[in-house]
Specification:
GO molecular function: 6-phosphogluconolactonase activity
Distance between the termini: 5 Å
Oligomer: single chain
Strand content: over 45%
Protein name: Lactonase family protein
Pfam family, one: Lactonase
Largest sheet: 5 strands, antiparallel
Number of strands: 29
InterPro entries: Cycloisomerase_2, Haem_d1_sf, Lactonase_7-beta_prop, WD40/YVTN_repeat-like_dom_sf
Family: Belongs to the cycloisomerase 2 family.
Length: about 325
């Protein structure tokens, strides 16, 4: 098993690094990382077989690029900022990107060789911006598939979740769910039933539980929970959110409080905080787990380190195993075979 970690390349990082996962139980650890893809600014990426599809940002240009065994095979690059997120459907050979700076959502196809083709784009216009300084324009931060095969985006600038159809190579808007003003809608996850989603508010440091019907596009705001302590008075930005495959636990990273908040999902789909564990570094933008969800790795962007945890599937808790794993400017974590 391996772990890929990439991020910014403003200082020491040269791109995407691979770490070998060694051992099991309390003996589990990561071997020293090695650079496997030399690329500028791979802040988010996906893997399909021997292809890696990554955000690329170099020399005032940004976009998405495909690499095979460390070699560039295709790219879609433009002047200006790169996307912030890349989603993938390997069966359809489709990629989904959200560009935080330009407001653009894109659907891109790829073939067996990794050749990329832009299929369609839509731009989020500045319709109803939030009240906070970070909400100066539309800022889509996430674009991926729903349980029903539609597409969904999260827009931090407009506190909004938008749903789209993609048919005959074209995107069309279907529905919207509005978070409260200043929420800073960032990422979301769907529960196994496909009837609830849990969305993080980066600016409010909250998780909003929403019941929805993907046929009628009816939404019900169930409850909202803080990811940080009630007495926390310093800056914090909630970032990554993940849900265990059994739907029993939600995990959210806090940049500022520098922790992972662990919530139990109760029978009525409301949440109960069961743990808030340190990431032993600063600014954990992302974390991820292996296929069995037995181990978690969190990357701390500002302190160039990562932490390995063991995950208890019965109660959802995380136990630190190895701290201060050296990772330069890490912002995205991906377990691979």
């Amino acid at each position: 098993m391996h772990i890929l970690i990439g991020g910014y390349t403003k200082h020491e990082s040269e791109g995407i690094y691979q770490f070998d996962f060694i051992g099991a139980g309390n003996e589990a650890h990561l071997e020293q990382g090695r650079n496997v893809v030399k690329v500028g600014g791979p802040t988010y990426f996906q893997k399909a077989g021997d292809l890696i599809f990554t955000i690329k940002n170099e020399n005032g240009q940004g976009g998405i690029a495909a690499y095979r065994r460390g070699k560039l095979v295709s790219q879609l690059i433009h002047d200006g900022s790169s996307p912030a997120y890349v989603g993938i459907n390997q069966d359809k050979r489709l990629l989904y990107t959200a560009n935080y700076h330009t407001g653009m959502l894109s659907v891109i196809s790829y073939d067996e060789q990794g050749q990329l083709t832009l299929l369609d784009q839509v731009k989020h216009e500045d319709r109803a911006l939030g009240p906070k300084p970070e909400q100066d324009t539309a800022h889509p931060h996430y674009f991926d598939e729903t349980p029903g095969g539609h597409l969904v985006s999260c827009d931090l600038g407009q506190d909004r979740v938008d749903f789209y159809a993609f048919k005959d190579g074209k995107l069309s808007h279907l529905a919207s769910y509005q978070n409260e003003d200043g929420f800073g809608t960032r990422h979301l996850v769907f529960d196994p039933s496909g009837q609830y989603f849990y969305v993080t508010g980066e600016l409010s440091s909250q998780v909003n539980v929403v019941k929805f019907d993907e046929a009628s596009w009816m939404f019900q705001n169930v409850a909202t929970y803080s990811t940080i302590p009630a007495d926390w008075d310093k800056h914090n930005g909630a970032a990554a959110i993940r849900m265990s495959k059994d739907g029993r636990f939600i995990y959210v990273s806090n940049r500022g409080n520098d922790s992972i908040a662990v919530f139990e999902v109760k029978a009525d789909h409301t949440l109960k905080l069961i743990q808030r564990v340190s990431t032993f570094g600063e600014f954990p933008r992302d974390f991820n787990w292996d296929e069995e969800e037995a181990y978690v790795v969190a990357a701390n962007q500002n302190t160039n380190n990562a932490t390995l945890y063991a995950r208890n599937a019965a109660d959802g808790s995380l136990t630190p195993l190895v701290k201060n794993i050296q990772v330069p400017e890490g912002t995205h974590v991906l377990f691979t075979e």
